[in-house]
Amino acid sequence: MTHSPHPDIPSSLPSSPAGGHRPESPSPAGTGAAGGATGRRTTAARIGGLDIARGIAVLGTLGTNIWLFSHPAGMLGSLLDPFAGLRPGAETLAYQLLSTLTNGKFLALLMMMFGIGVTLQYAAWQRRAARAEDRPGEGVRRRGWLRTYAPRAALLFVDGLVNFLLVAEFDILMGYAFTGFVVAAIIATSPRTARIWAWIAGAVHTALILLLSASLLLFPEAAGIADGRPADSAAAWPLWNGINPYREAGFFELALFRLDYAVMFRAEPLLTFAMGVCLFIVGARLYDAGIFDSAGARRRRRGMLLGAAAVPADVALGVIGSPAAVLAQRYLTATLVAVGLLALIAHLTAPRDGAAVERPRTGIPGAGLFAAVGRMSLTCYVGQNLVAGALFYGWGLDIAGRFPDHRLLLSVGGFAVVLAIMVAFILTWQRWVTGPARRGPLEWLSHAALERLR
């Protein structure tokens, strides 16, 4: 393993009832529009904050993934030589600083948002069960909830499988499907039990990452590293059947390549399982504790202080840039920064203390755009990766292959182009499309498939 801007991927996250969303008929990965597991009413302020946070997280993943698209040898090459196409000195430093801004932060933020989605779904299920006067014992209720959530998890797994094969080998939806189902069972227990599981999962994850980081420090040759850099240039390697599939393979040939390397490409979801369990629960508990409410100012301040305290160490690890440092950054310090980021978003969108009516604030520049993206999170994520593939890969314009020595410029420019295309598409769709499809093309298809599974 070497220094690599590992990918971040969202899932279908909690949506607001705006734009044709039905409050209790959300998208398959755990969306919903009514209160958390405590049964509190969900205000417009909290919904607005969730949309904005989800939109920021989804677009933030592009900031990480763009470095994989712009690498001459794609994701596999970035694991072997992350600095390909970058001149030593200023360009390499710029890459390290820019990748540090996104590396791991939005992966962790998405996990917390997904946890919020699961707790919203559980609250909606509780209300439906209460209306049906279904009041069995707690164990029976938990099994009934898991039977309800299982089709959502299964559909998310299928979504992830298709996304992995056809769009992006760094898909994490399949991992989210399994982790979400486990967390769904935990959330249905007592808050104390959920807190214990979060601490256990966090401790296991921290120990694993520290062990791996120490191994990379003690045995750098195991990662193919010589003097801090790979011994060979991944950009020049024939990676599959004698060719570089990112440059020379067609769209469906690239899918076969992903299938051939499935074990390697599926390693990160296994590595982050304990991290996911911990952060899913953290997100759910923060939401239930009122982080998006006017009364949650104290929790928001604590979260922002935690994130700010982790920033210096996070930046230092990114600038060091060794595989051990980047591993610790992505999976340890970045998670703390993400907690601060969530608290900051909540702080800028939550109603002010003492407000007579809880109306969402828009203290974030571009809040309306982020909210629009958040309402079509699944479509945006898959779409931005598909557009990026069309720009950078050989089956498209192949600009990474045409200009392999200008990776920094291509990455920054490509990010801006993909961002502009997706925002324009989303705003146009939400303005002109009416009815159930207004929620987004992929959201609508997923919802229709889920209705058939019920």
From TrEMBL:
UniProt cross-references to InterPro entries, sorted A to Z: Bact_Transport_Assoc, DUF418
Record's keyword terms, sorted: Membrane, Transmembrane, Transmembrane helix
Annotated TM spans: 106-125, 146-166, 172-189, 196-219, 270-292, 304-325, 331-348, 369-396, 408-429
Residue span of region Disordered: 1-40
All residue ranges annotated as the DUF418 domain in the record: 309-449
Short name of one Pfam family: DUF418
Full protein name: DUF418 domain-containing protein
Source species of the chain: Brevibacterium pityocampae
